[in-house]
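Lab notebook, bench 4. Still working through the backlog of constructs that have no structural model yet. Next entry is a single chain of 266 residues. Request: give me the structure tokens for it.
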Amino acid sequence: YWWARLFNCRVLVRPALELLLTVTSGRDGADVRGIRLDEPVTVYDVARQLPTISDLRDLCRSLAMLDAILSPDWESRYYSFNAAWAEGEEMASMRNGSGDEYSIVFSAAGVYVRGFSHESPMSPYGNDGEPWPGVIDEVPAVFRPFVEEPAFTDEDGVPVVTACLWRGKTDDQWRHGTIDFPAGRADPDGTTGLFNLLVDRSPEAFQCFAEDYYEVPVDLAVVSNVYALRPLDQELVSSLNAEVTLADLDQDISEIGYPRPDRESF
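Model written out:
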């Protein structure tokens, strides 16, 4: 049964395969494409595939808005976004209900990304209560407050993290620490499962995730509209969840910072 779900749900397969897909250049200059199954998938791969800061922010707002429609109960949501998390800061988050999570802080300095996979061998709880060497050691001073942020640490002040990325406002790429990953694991820091919808940014990927997670049909056209940040109307909302109205979503729209609908749509 689980193999059928695995191959039917491209969100579970495509990111891992794409992250393992490498393009090398032959001596004659031609591209040689192949899948390197002997290489682990890590934060290094994710850093190469994350979008720009603005595109990541838009995607995170879209994910949060879709989840708000599908799951009126905030505690049951997978993806959230708070456009007023702190003064001058916004935060996107993911919680899978099984102990895996990420937090993405958008600030004037840029973006800080923290991911935690509870089964990762790089968890601080399997490393004498210390973050895995290299994961946060090179985080620039401008982002260090987020490393020590109480919301991202446990009651003993230990950063709850197995993967970390950052990107300054003027950076042209995502950055990460220099890490000696544990051997023998295909996904040592948990990044494949944590960031799959940030790597595979297609509406089809969310459709597959949501149909699997919420066990309801999800209209691909509606997902595409929300991914494009088009203002909501009642027809669109009802297509995803007939029990939710635009009025019900008013607070969520404000919290997420999603484009507001025309008041006549209420």
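Notes after review: The CA atoms of residues 31 and 97 lie 42 Å apart. The chain has one domain: 2-265. Flag for follow-up if needed.
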